[in-house]
Amino acid sequence: MKKQKGENKMKVKLPLLILALTACTQLHAQTTIYVSKNFEKSGVIEYIHVALTHVSYWSSTNKKYIDLKTKVSPPVGLDTVQFPGSNAVYRIKETRQGLWLSHPNGKKQFFDLLPTTYISKDFEHKGVVEFLEVTGNSTVYKYYTSKNPHRKIQLQTVARDGKKFRFQVKFPGQKATYWLSYTATCDSDILCLHPDGRKQLFKYYYWVEGE
Prior knowledge:
This is Lipoprotein, putative. Residues 1-29 form the signal peptide. The chain has a nine-stranded antiparallel sheet, with no helix packed on it. An eight-stranded antiparallel β-barrel has the order 1-2-3-4-5-6-7-8. By secondary structure, it is mainly β. The chain is built from one helix and 17 strands. A hairpin with a 4-residue loop joins strand 10 (129-135) and strand 11.
């Protein structure tokens, strides 16, 4: 049998692609955002973003992401963080409810866990933001809009495609179904395929705006 040109290259590239996608999927699954309000100053909201051992910080008054220096202590995991150029050490501990940050002066600050959320702007109507809230290890999806943020609709899962990491969902009481699939990038946005063939992108939401 004649070997096709480029066959060896494909054999090398395919495992690398699989490893890259697996790493991105794991990163998505372990990416979490926490929030703390009114701790140092009234009206100020602080955020901590944890992705495996990578930690970043920003606030409502300074929306520039700051990558923190981290220290990992097995088997505990993340142990301490430091701001760039500072010797001050903060102890960090994640729990099911949120995250504790112990300051160098002894103060303890609690950050609440934020839901993993994706947003799409101006798709159906200009000025309207649509949200997808994901829980249950990426198996439960809730939908709501900026017009009625308190009315969250839990979508019903019709089918799962594990090979392509996508889910077929529908609104309660409706027959029309939508396919939700994660994009093959480390951003892990969600692509929604509508029944009429339209494609809508829901981007990962970092909670910087719209508090």
